[in-house]
Amino acid sequence: MGKVGIVTDSTAYLPLEFKEKYQIEVVSLVVNYDDKSVPEEGIFYQGLDDFYNWLRQASVLPTTSQPSTGDFLEAYKRLSERVESIVSIHISGGISGTVGSAAAAAQMLPDLDITVINSGTTSIGLYMVVQAAALTAAAGLGKEKVLENVRYVVDNLQVLFVPATLEYLKRGGRIGGAAALLGNLLQIKPVLYFNRERDYIIDVYEKVRTKEKGIRRMLSEMKEAGPYLKTAAAHVDSVSEGEDLLKRVKEIYPGTDPLFSGVGPVIGSHIGPGTVGVAWYPLTPELDELINH
Predict the structure, then answer these.
(1) Which residues have a Cβ under 8 Å from the Cβ of 217 and sit 6 or more positions away?
(2) What pTM did the predictor assign?
(3) Of 44, 91, 184, 207, which has the fewest CB atoms closer than 10 Å, so is most exposed?
């Protein structure tokens, strides 16, 4: 015992090898589409191409459901059999009630040492927070150091993304309908982000005229953030564009190993296929040692 266990949700889109290596407990959101309800994690690992093929043709967007309190109770009880403390890190409370379900479950288990964290992000950003937690825990540095590193990443993380179209955000209600209509008429491609000032909702960071200009703006912001960063790139059902963006990140920071991930159904159906994004945070010497060595 004495170990720290990490819990997250399916919107972190963790590579399977990473999840298994660090024994991360993932609680899945649910995707409701095509007259069925399916745990997101199963789609992400085994049916992502089929899902996006369906989504591109769909006249009605899927709906998504947060995990139940019972789902978290099961995960916490299971994990508590092999660890002493649990750190549970989740999708932004500004766009999902998942972190509320996690907190409710933690309160129902007063004999367990559980800390629930609202990451203020999701997708590749959540993956970055979970990576910092998992590597700190694996180094045996204890719960307080895990929490310190997690909170540092949450506080210093920037995630920017450019959608191929505003249609999915408009239909999903994640951005104002008038703004979405205006954007499409003017061919505006907004750079979007999680706004700390508004409970980490998805908000417009900057408006540009083309997707390429949006990508250049994201990379420019990353470059201005400093020379010692942990970086990442992500895509929604657009592997070639994602890999091209990853290559451009590596050109700015040669010799580094950015994280790279696709985006699954819960987030992908809201921001739409063809979206690409980048994320980063400044590395402390300690995190540099943990992550890069």
Answers:
(1) 160, 191, 206, 208
(2) 0.94
(3) 184
